[in-house]
Automatic annotation (TrEMBL):
Name listed for the protein in its UniProt record: Endonuclease YncB(Thermonuclease family)
Gene3D superfamilies: 2.40.50.90
Superkingdom in the source lineage: Bacteria
Residue intervals passing through the bilayer: none
InterPro entries listed in its UniProt record: SNase_OB-fold_sf, Staphylococal_nuclease_OB-fold
Record organism: Methylobacterium fujisawaense
TNase-like domain ranges (all copies): 51-175
Residues in the signal sequence: none
MF term (GO), any: endonuclease activity
Keywords: Endonuclease, Hydrolase, Nuclease
Length: 196
């Protein structure tokens, strides 16, 4: 999708360069404006590449997803409840665990800028990235608080923190919940079935 949008922006830049720039009789070149529009359009929609660090303020979408600038970023190595997820506490009372996880992540970030290093492509349009506030790994922090589960195959370093959170009955571990990765997989399968 981003490539298609980039191509459309390049075409729009060419048309804008033709229509908006003075003609060659005035001795001015259309090339600088055309190059600026083309580069800006393509860089705005270009996906993050490995090694490229996204920096800036972050908007929390849910306990495992941020928006940094114009890019959606899934936190590397974790599965957190989606924003609308409901869990049950130790007394089997429902509570909005998805909103709680998102709120805790937003409070942890506060007004600080995040730095996210892409680690591959995640779900949907979101890239997967290792995101930090200062030196603190946000994915590891979410697991340590019991607000997300580690993907033990991808991020084995998070397993010990998850075990400690489980032992202390923190966050999700204080009651009953559906595995966020399993829930996300079911939703994706249902949306594919509905589309077909």
């Amino acid at each position: 999708m981003s490539l298609f949008v980039g191509i459309l922006l390049a075409c729009a830049a060419g048309l804008a360069g033709t229509l908006l720039c003075p003609d060659d009789k005035a001795g001015r070149s259309r090339l600088p404006l055309l190059a600026a529009l083309l580069a800006g359009g393509l860089s705005w929609h270009a996906p993050a590449r490995a090694g490229e660090i996204l920096r800036g303020p972050a908007q929390v979408i849910d306990g495992g997803t941020l928006r940094v600038g114009t890019r959606a970023v899934s936190l590397f190595g974790i599965a957190a409840p989606e924003a609308d997820a409901t869990c049950a506490d130790a007394q089997d009372r429902p509570y909005p665990c998805g909103r709680d996880a998102a709120r805790a992540l937003a409070e942890r970030i506060g007004g600080a800028a995040v730095a996210c290093e892409p680690r591959g492509h995640g779900t949907g349009d979101a890239a997967t990235a290792l995101c930090r506030v200062g030196d603190a790994d946000l994915g590891a922090w979410m697991v340590a608080q019991g607000l997300a589960l580690p993907d033990r195959d991808v991020a084995p370093d998070y397993a010990a923190a998850a075990d400690r959170a489980w032992g202390r009955r923190l966050g999700l571990w204080s009651g009953v919940f559906q595995d966020p990765a399993e829930r996300r997989g079911r939703r994706a399968a249902a949306s594919l079935g509905a589309a077909g």
